[in-house]
From TrEMBL:
The species this protein was found in: Streptomyces pathocidini
Domain ChsH2 rubredoxin-like zinc ribbon: 21-51
Protein name: Zn-ribbon domain-containing OB-fold protein
PANTHER family reported in the protein's UniProt record: BLR3430 PROTEIN
InterPro entries xrefs: ChsH2_Znr, NA-bd_OB-fold, Thioester_dehydratase-like
Amino acid sequence: MARARTPVVDGWFREDGGGFRLVGTRCADCASVFFPREDAFCRNPACAGTGLIEVPLSRRGTVWSWTDCRYRPPAPYVSDPAVEWEPYTLVAVELAAERMVVLGQAAPGVTPADLAVGREVEVVPGVLGEDSERVWTTWHWRPVTPEEAA
């Protein structure tokens, strides 16, 4: 039996005919863009807007920073000691059009040696974890190859 593919957070990303995209919201009054999405009010302190429109975010951005996560997080963070710890790379990506930085894990196999500040990356579908019933889906950042960038 196939396991259900379940987003780790519903409404933060989608895969459709336009490809895999992070989803944010834009204020109809001041045009500020938010991720994670905001559905109640504009988070811009200079705006009292409440009209928020769902918008797909840019697929590509540039590395703003990154860190190499090599140890199991301490309590109170949830981390099952029965599961072998796998290091990962966390990437902060600047989306120029939205004027924001979005965090996410690097795609499997991407290491800090593959990254540099200013390097172009793109958002791709990822898997955060699996259990007997579900595959928990998320997003990852993958470096754009020189051929893809051209």
